[in-house]
Write a structure and sequence with these properties.
Layout (H helix, E strand, L loop, with lengths): L2 H6 L6 H7 L23 H11 L2 H7 L1 E4 L7 H4 L4 E4 L10 H16 L8 E4 L17 H7 L2 H16 L5 E2 L23 H17 L17 E5 L21 E2 L3 H8 L1 H8 L4 E4 L3 E2 L2 E2 L4 H11 L5 E3 L12 H11 L4 E3 L3 H13 L5 H18 L18 H14 L1 E5 L17 E4 L6 H5 L19 H9 L4 E3 L13 E7 L17 H13 L2 E7 L8 H4 L3 E4 L8 H7 L23 H4 L16
Parallel strand pairs: 1-2, 1-11, 2-3, 3-4, 5-7, 6-8, 7-10, 13-14, 13-15, 15-16, 16-17
Antiparallel strand pairs: 8-9, 12-17
Helix pairs in contact: 3-15, 7-16, 8-9, 8-16, 9-11, 13-14, 16-21, 18-21
The protein binds beta-D-glucopyranose (2 copies).
């Protein structure tokens, strides 16, 4: 910028600042004219980025690189720290948990951001990983493992778009999804966040979600052309799903955040493809994994984050850390931040102490441990995304979209997704040659199981709370309600523990049991099995009825006991979300079963990890791709 242009762009009283403009130093402190180039939407994005970047002070730049959890913010922090981003962690909802109070909360943060000298809008992010799952009474879709079973990119694209609409309606354009982990060990507590053990399936569905989410029309229901465009996150780069059992050093975790080991070929053929495709699909952000690759924390892996992702794959968006993920690089906080930022992390997700991070980075820049070029690159990437989204032009909540939350269209889509994700593992009938499924809608039916009438269990983790929660936590149709709707309530007898007052041997009993909700390393499990209470229910049902249908709600394949294996029919329902009627649609034959296993189903945990099936060293109970039809 030349001095003349610079001086004209600033008020006369600040001419002394203008003098420094030509030297490339930031103007710092002064007001910026309304016609500054970066504010002009008709200029191209790179010109706007360059114009804004050169006006920014170091504090303003580091602020852009900082994302703080909303629960840790005091009034005024967004403005005084020049924050680039705010997030809601799992369960980080406002009170009351309504669309309007979400939108009011986000808009309040936004007003603070817009009140700053440069008026750079903040970007709000949340884990909408199966619908806007922190918002009470949102549409909750099946977790990714179910979508992997359905293996229908068009469906996933539609789920992405619907999720974007419900999230945008509450003022939030940014989701930390899709998780494109290629999970290789179902003992991992995040297996359900993975579409599949198979890289090509993950690749196709991850890209479909990104296209759907980022392609959702933000002006639906609003004036044409309004609304920031929503953005997605491919996570967790790289190898989160390949960590080995027993390698985690986080608290009581066993595998989550642990170490994935392998050679370059394994990295390139199994772990990397979903990212290559995500970049091609135009994903705007990538989140780094807590895990390590060959012993080095991913947040410190410059060769992978900078050279491979940004360099070789040409990723032009920005890289966000995971939740205090850089802190794990080193016990020394200064060293950890320097290493992480120099490795290529552009925005730090800081759950608690944003000031500590900001002061540390300032020190590191002063000491030249982090170069100005690296800071400018990080900030340019963040600003580029904000400009591309139209956030400067539409920073506020798109409230007109509120009518899409739990709309009939979204519920229909969630029901369809639940139905398509069902995998029929077994379908016989004691004493006959046919299968017990599909059920007759006109016969008397017994239903049992602790998960039959439980929205929280069928949604799993990352629903209302970080860990999810058993019970009546949000609006939806339980599987029992779906069955009653299909069969007529008067024909259905329900007893959660299968302690029926009277039974009819000739009738069918459907037992719905499964895992209690969990998320991340809290779900790491050595045994991945049903609990004793649920096994007892299956045994009682077996004793009382000739024909028993077992419906399994789980975030992964479970090791099945004799009682479970002896059921006439077994359905892997995964975590179908709020629309249990979709499960009933398959049980009653309204929708033909088309789900196929996205994971090899182990006989025992000794067979794990999945690599043993892939290499042929172990034979699964049911192989990847298996699923019956009728
Ligand atoms: C998880 C991420 C998530 C983030 C924010 C982390 O603990 O690993 O997947 O996006 O928290 O909730
Ligand atoms: C947050 C999650 C986050 C987790 C990480 C929780 O308190 O709600 O979003 O992923 O902490 O440990």
């Amino acid at each position: 910028m030349n001095i003349r242009h610079c001086a004209r762009a600033l008020p006369l009283a600040l001419a002394f600042i203008a003098l420094s403009c030509g030297t490339g130093a930031p103007s710092g402190g002064g007001k910026v004219p309304a016609n500054a180039a970066y504010r002009n939407p008709s200029l191209d994005v790179e010109a706007r980025v360059a114009d804004l970047l050169k006006r920014m002070t170091l504090d303003e730049k580091i602020g852009q690189m900082t994302q703080i959890e909303k629960g840790s913010l005091r009034g005024g922090d967004v403005a005084s720290l020049y924050l680039g981003s705010v997030l809601s962690g799992g369960g980080g909802s406002p009170n009351p948990n309504t669309p309007a109070s979400w939108a009011d909360m986000v808009d309040r943060f936004q007003d603070e951001a817009l009140s700053t000298r440069l008026g750079i809008p903040m970007l709000y992010g949340v884990d909408s990983v199966h619908g806007h799952n922190n918002l009470k009474d949102a549409t909750v879709f099946p977790h990714n493992i179910g979508l992997g079973a359905a293996n229908d990119p068009e469906l996933v694209r539609a789920v992405g778009a619907a999720t974007a609409r419900e999230t945008l309606a509450t003022g939030i354009p940014w989701t930390f999804a899709p998780c494109v982990a290629v999970a290789r060990d179902p003992r991992w507590g995040r297996t359900y966040e993975s579409f599949s053990q198979d890289p090509s399936l993950v690749t196709a569905l991850g890209a479909a979600f990104i296209a759907g989410y980022q392609g959702a029309d933000p002006s639906v229901g609003a004036a044409a052309g309004t609304g920031a465009r929503p953005i997605a996150t491919a996570k967790h780069f790289l190898g989160d799903g390949a960590a080995r059992w027993g390698t985690s050093t986080t608290g009581t975790y066993k595998i989550d955040q642990g170490d994935a080991a392998g050679d370059e070929a394994y990295l390139r053929t199994v772990l990397l493809p979903p990212y290559a495709e995500a970049v091609k699909a135009g994903v705007k952000t990538v989140m780094v994994s807590f895990s390590s690759w060959n012993g080095l924390k991913m947040h410190a892996q410059k060769a992978l984050v900078t050279d491979l992702l940004k360099g070789e794959l040409g990723f032009a968006g920005f890289v966000v850390s995971d939740w205090a993920g850089m802190d794990q690089i080193d016990g020394d906080y200064y060293k950890a931040m320097v290493t992480g930022i120099n490795a290529g992390v552009d925005m730090n997700m800081v759950p608690y102490d944003g000031r500590k991070f900001i002061d540390t980075v300032k020190k590191a820049v002063d000491a030249k441990d982090i170069s100005m070029a690296r800071i400018d690159d990080a900030v340019a990437r963040i600003l580029r995304v904000k400009f591309e989204m139209g956030l400067f032009e539409s920073p506020k909540a798109n409230r007109a979209l509120a009518s899409t939350i739990r709309s009939p269209e979204h519920l229909e889509l969630a029901r369809k997704a639940a139905a398509e994700s069902q995998v029929i593992l077994k379908n016989e009938a004691t004493g006959t040659s046919g299968g017990v499924l599909p059920l007759s809608p006109s016969a008397k039916l017994y239903v049992a199981g602790s998960a039959a009438d439980n929205i929280g269990i069928q949604c799993g983790g990352w629903t209302m709370e970080w860990q999810g929660k058993s019970g009546n936590i949000t609006a939806g149709t339980t599987i029992l309600a779906g069955i009653r709707e299909a069969a007529g309530a008067d024909r259905v007898v329900f007893e959660p523990w299968a302690k029926f007052a009277e039974t009819d041997r000739k009738a069918v009993c459907v037992v719905v049991v499964g895992e209690r909700p969990y998320a991340e390393g809290m779900g790491d499990s050595a045994s991945i099995s049903l609990n004793a209470g649920d096994i007892g229910t299956i045994e009682r049902a077996r004793e009382s009825f000739d024909r028993v249908v077992l419906v399994l709600l789980s975030g992964r394949p479970l090791i099945l006991e004799e009682a479970a294996l002896s059921c006439d029919a077994i359905v892997a329902s995964w975590l179908p979300g709020t629309e249990g009627s979709g499960v009933a649609d398959v049980l009653f034959g309204k929708v033909a079963p088309k789900g196929r296993l996205p994971f090899d189903w182990p006989v025992s945990t000794e067979q794990l990890p999945v690599d043993n099936f892939v290499s042929g060293n172990q034979k699964p109970l049911w192989p990847f791709g298996y699923g019956l039809s009728w």
